[in-house]
Amino acid sequence: MKINVLSLPALLLIFVVWITPGLFGRDPWKADEPYSFGIAYHMVQTGDWVVPTLTGEPFLEKPPLFYLTAAGFGLLFSPPLDQFDAMRLATAFYMFLAFLFFALTARELYGREYGAIAVLLLLGCVHLQVTAHKLVTDVALFAGFAIAFYGFALCGRRRTAGGFWIGTGTGVGFLAKGLIAPGMLGIVAVALPALFSQWRRKNYGVSLAVALAAALPWLVIWPAALYGRSPAFFREWFWHQNFCRFLGFNGGSVGFNGGSPDPHSWYILNLPLLAWPVILPAFWSLWHFRRSWREQPLFQVPLVASIVILAVLSAAATNRSLYALPMLLPISLLAVPGIDSLPAGAKVIGNRASILLFGVLALLLWFGWFAMMTDSPAFLAQKLHEFQPDYVPSVNGVLLAAAVLYSLAWLFVVVKVTRSPVYALVNWALGVVLVWGLVMTLWLPVLNAGSSYQAAFTSLKKSMPAEYSCIERRGLGESERAMLEYYAGLRTRRIGAFGPGNCDLLLEQRAGKAPEDSPGPAWKKIWEFKHPSIHPKDIFTLFKKASGT
To answer: The pTM is what?
Structure first.
């Protein structure tokens, strides 16, 4: 029986085997996962969804949609799953929504047969891999953009439905990460009729009116509830966490690290890496259809959206590759129609390169794992142990069986099913699934050993004095605070502006290369933990104030 790798069941299977590795069997990893877990964990414990709270302190960087969703999955599926794993089902949920609406958008713009191509293109984006499996709000923002783009694609044919999905996607993006989604999508909505006459029609105006009505509940209910709880909280979120963060001001200071804003050219200069490999067929599409996209609305939505997102990100004061995630959607949409028109030679080269590249990477992952497990060859095993000195080699039978299954399945498909150059895109996507699957099975325990805070904070819990008033913190990050509460049941207070206050314990976190800075002669070090494989080699120190001081 011939296997249709572009059929709906096959695409669903590819999505499942891609999204599953990395969701389960590990602790939250820095930088964003631990504090996201901490906020969702607070919602599970208290039921308070209005004020996102981290270890007892308001954390108003982002609205609560993703945290609330994660808390819901945590309540539903823990037990039997651990809290971390149950909450990461929210990530899978939003990624499924993103891929679903992205495929619908491609079908609406280019035709029914292009939905599968769109899914494989997006799945093969290198930049997507880590974020798509993490407990972070950006996956909900990603889904919101995908929903809104479907609305833009649909409003030419079904103005009411198109407007509804534009508004809904905008609302999801807003409740995921604040004003950035309404801002970007609002600029796209205005730029389309400003640049192209095809959008200067009454039907499009009706769609935008419907979009506004659909977005209003998302835009109003939570901010009103937050304002009702505390006008000061509302001002902190609305002004400081949206406008000041975007412009690089925090309490009147430029930059969040006390320095100058990041270079505005960063996203443009790094665009090939951030959008690899879809940037290549995207540019090919623009060239190949250069006489069509100026007149065809089907090319205009992704083109305008790509430019707007890139421009807004470049205008921001802070650069992070994570923030570029929504840009993958319109760039991948631009790449969709160009896949079929690629020269035959390019498809042959792409197909062979994909099989060779991912085959070699898989062999290296297997060889490195074997060296670490057997200490042979000795030089490689030593280097790997230096890379992750926390890890004690042991074989996990379940993960090993999964890795073998991924490898054999990939070999079978590329040998028996997708050898033809027409499957170059499929082989790239399957190669990404293979390598990601091996990293998150063979190497998951290794990576988790160096990224987990469990050893540090369970050790701290055992070393805590029997009696103390409170714990102040110095240099302790948001992620560390969340894990400290989960593993040790401990909360800390901010250190006073003029040094340690009335607490008799002080917990300090510093980089490994930073010298120890004693809080004063009245303080005695009673515990220290060095985590050698967390960059930048964090050191945790607990000081106790001498009695009577």
So the answer is: 0.92
